[in-house]
Amino acid sequence: MQNFNCTGCNARVDFENISCLACARALAFSPDMMSIVALDPNPKNPAERRLTAPPHAPVRYCGNWAHGACNWLASPADADGLCIACGMNRVIPNIASRERLQSWRDLELAKKRLIYSLLRLQLPFELAGTGSKRLTFDFADGKMTGHKDGVITINPDEADTVERERRRQWFDEPYRSLLGHMRHESGHFFWELLVSNTANLDNFRKFFGDERLDYKTSLANYHHSGPAPNWHERHASAYASAHPWEDWAETWAHYLHMLSVLDTAEAEGISPTSTQPSGNSDQPQGAIPATAVTDVYRKGKFESLVNKWVPLTITMNALSRSMGHSDFYPFVTPPPVYEKLQFIHDIIRARPQSI
């Protein structure tokens, strides 16, 4: 995440802010500008705002702003008055319930960070030629979290901290978060877009395995018998060993983790330069000091990202432990996973830089 400044007074503001603490102006995220913008009342239309900075154009909040669930500007092309991210919703929780309203707000915060990253990657949200498969979200009670035909389903219970921790321990997952779920499930959608029926399929099978293995049987075997004893030698997580599709989705999520964290670290001027393994199994031999990257989402070689990522995660883990918390990045990344990450990196970079 980049740093943002109020376009009215230049004070530092955050991605989720709805007003500037320094000048009290209203704030919103503009997907068109990919930035937080300050807003003033529009004297010609009380229902609208106008940009504080030039060109002072009239704008509208997303319709979900009224529920405290969105701080983005509406898409001019959306007849429902929703932003590009909220326009992807098909089902939302029952917001008549205070608890579910808060769950929805938390879900939207996580989803906005996912969509921000996908916009930075300049990836499309619709499968060309299908006519119907578009990235869509169901935040539905009583449903299993998952993905099917472009629809990402998230059970709102996942927004409850206690329930999420219970499931984290039940499934023995060292990392479980709303944003992590969404990044993972989006990977299934982008597998269809970037790999299925493309020239990338053969190389996918080389790195991840044959996706034609029966999916339901593979997952049933995983949940019954657990992962293979040596899963950590080739996979980002135990669940990634269940089936090649899950391996891709887990690796995709880790790639988005890496980009988002590196983007934030660079914006904050954080650049760990340790070059020794320090006894950590996830530190590759011969790591070099981090180097500046102009735009981690679209520029820079994969090696430069990894050379910054590894010392950064080691430093962040040490800081988390110093505060008595669990590791910031509780994963060990074996060499085959770096090869899978590079495969994802390369096919994204090979796409035209437009949405």
What does this protein look like?
The chain has 355 residues and is α+β, with helices and mostly antiparallel strands. It has three domains: 1-80, no CATH class; 85-194; 202-349, no CATH class. The protein has helices spanning 98-120, 161-170, 178-194, 201-208, 215-225, 244-267, 302-322, 335-349; strands at residues 4-5, 12-13, 26-30, 35-41, 49-51, 58-59, 89-91, 136-139, 146-148, 151-154. Strand 5 (49-51) and strand 6 form a beta hairpin.
Query: What's the domain count?
Result: 3
> What is the first-to-last residue Cα distance?
19 Å
Q: Globular, elongated, flat, extended or rod-shaped: what is the shape?
A: globular
- Runs with pLDDT <50, length 5+? 274-293
Task: Give me the secondary-structure category.
Answer: alpha+beta
Order of helices and strands: EEEEEEEHEEEHHHHHHH
Q: What does the average pLDDT come to?
A: 89
Provide a short characterization of the protein structure.
The protein is an alpha+beta fold and 355 residues long. The protein has helices spanning 98-120, 161-170, 178-194, 201-208, 215-225, 244-267, 302-322, 335-349, and strands spanning 4-5, 12-13, 26-30, 35-41, 49-51, 58-59, 89-91, 136-139, 146-148, 151-154. The chain folds into three domains: 1-80, no CATH class; 85-194; 202-349, no CATH class.
Walk me through the topology:
Elements: E1 4-5, E2 12-13, E3 26-30, E4 35-41, E5 49-51, E6 58-59, E7 89-91, H1 98-120, E8 136-139, E9 146-148, E10 151-154, H2 161-170, H3 178-194, H4 201-208, H5 215-225, H6 244-267, H7 302-322, H8 335-349
Parallel strand pairs: 7-8, 8-10
Antiparallel strand pairs: 1-2, 3-4, 4-5, 5-6, 9-10
Helix pairs in contact: 1-3, 3-6, 4-8, 6-7, 6-8
